[in-house]
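Let's practice the habit of predicting before peeking. Look at the sequence and jot down your guess about where helices and strands might fall. Then scroll down.
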Amino acid sequence: MNNANVAGHRQSATDPTAQVFLAYAAEDGCRAPGEAIAGPGGAEVVGELRQLLTQTQITYRQCPCPWPADADPEAIISRAAEACDNYVLVLSPYTLADVFCLQGLLFALSLNKRIVPVLIETVSAHHLPEPLQTLETVDLRDRSLPLTQTDGGRQLLQILHHAADYHHAHTQLLLRALEWERQRRHPDLLLEGDELDQYQRWLVQANGRSHHRPIQLQALYITESARHQASQGSAVALGMGWIRRWL
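Done guessing? Here is the structure:
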């Protein structure tokens, strides 16, 4: 994720997460330094989106543009999707042909992330990927005002702020579980104490939801953490019993 750009207030050197991953086609968001934007196009809207997120102190990541020669776009987008609370997909005709945007979308869906489609150009509904056809779309095609003064801009902020704590906890737990899995399930990476109690309560709440539920790895991570803590407690109790008998 070192190749992704960052803005906002909740980001820190020790916190790889962001509230938003802003995904858009290169044709909509990339331009050379100093290049003027001729008229209201995709790059203008993406720029306004960045400004809206920054002004409202919503942290975001986005793909580097252009991609560095040594970059691995699939890996960068996958890690960004893991570490975001919301996958905001900027929809235009270019997006539907952008393999990296669509790969990121499918990966975010597999993690049960909140997907927020943002429409900046007219796209035929039957051309949309099937997962997007049932999602609420934020319409940002009216660019006569700054986004903060449009219905679409206000709608986007309302979506991002709704249940924000839940989605942030989803991301934090997912990153912990993924690290545990990638480190061959090392017991030192398991949850314990108050943190385990907190995520056990979160899991009960999450399992009662119809959308953005925990994935299997998150549930397994909590289960294994509880089992490990119980076994450690049993070992301590057994050791204390031997000590009392010896005394």
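How did you do? The first helix runs from residue 26 to 29.
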